[in-house]
Amino acid sequence: MQKIKKAILTGGGRATRLRPVTSTMNKHLIPLANKPMIFHAIQKAVDAGIEEIFINTNPGETDLQKHIGDGGHWGIKITFFEQTGGPQGIAHVVNEAKKFIGNDPFMFYLSDNILLGSLKTLFDEFTDNSYDAMFAFSHVVDPQRFGVPIFNEQGKLVDVVEKPINPPNNFAQTGIYLYGPGVFFKIFDKIEKSPRGEYEISSINSHLLRNNFKVGHKEITGWWKDTGAPVDLIIANRLLMEEMSESEFKNLGQLNSGAQIDGKVKIGVGTTVGENVKIIGPAIIGENCTLKNCTISSGVTIGSGSVIEGVEITNSIVLANCHLACGLKIKDSIIGGNVQIKKKNTDGFHRLIVGEQTLIEL
Fold it and tell me: Are the C-beta atoms of residues 266 and 248 closer than 8 Å to each other?
């Protein structure tokens, strides 16, 4: 079988569980290790040998295109397409890319899945065995949230069920799917929408298994995470930094002699780190930031253009152009772009302008 050179990546959806951050930005642009989330998926695809990527977008979307470009940054070609007719499930997203894929094998990758480790062995096994499809599974504690594989007594994969109430095992289908030439699109015409009104990817996969297609599967033994909730983003942010090599952590800013740096710390161009600042890695500070009288503990990323003063932050994601000068200890938090948290000497009252689904603990 020919090697996989094409991939479809998701870039749409509303990510309601990540509001209010996603009220003003596409989920796939939320920075993890100070890079948009989708950049990590693109890099995984490129490292596995992908040469063309097709990304679906929400109607009228322009932010993804501006941030990602045409793929030249990765030496590949990237094309964007809208899902017509509104949200109809991720299997429908794949079918919308039929005109781009043609009769070639391809990977479908849910871009909000963060994976540590290479996809190359998965690709090689798929090609070497001439599979019609191949799925990646991961051991999880909450399989009822995912598509769950069904194995017979001999351990053979025989079906996949979507979000079962009583899962038969603790495996989840990750957001990584490989399909052979023409297989997916032939089956799509045979499936119907689920009770929730969507074309489910598990319906495609179940059809393949029940009709004797040659289907392979592989357990992802490294770390995998579906970043559907704020805590998942925070965990992924830290683990991605821990995976980065020492050579990627460079100080390109201006460091005051009174500042302390401990561990793997990356500081961007134009950033000034003043006295009485302590940074404990892994941590990434973006470009043109100002840090004064603060402690940045491990697992923290600070977006470009931010001012951090008089606070202690640990295990958190701070997006670009924030101004934090509030005398607080901040932990396990996500702070959206252009947020200001300042301390004001008043009679004990606090002034809050807070968006929908915001969490504040004072």
Answer: yes
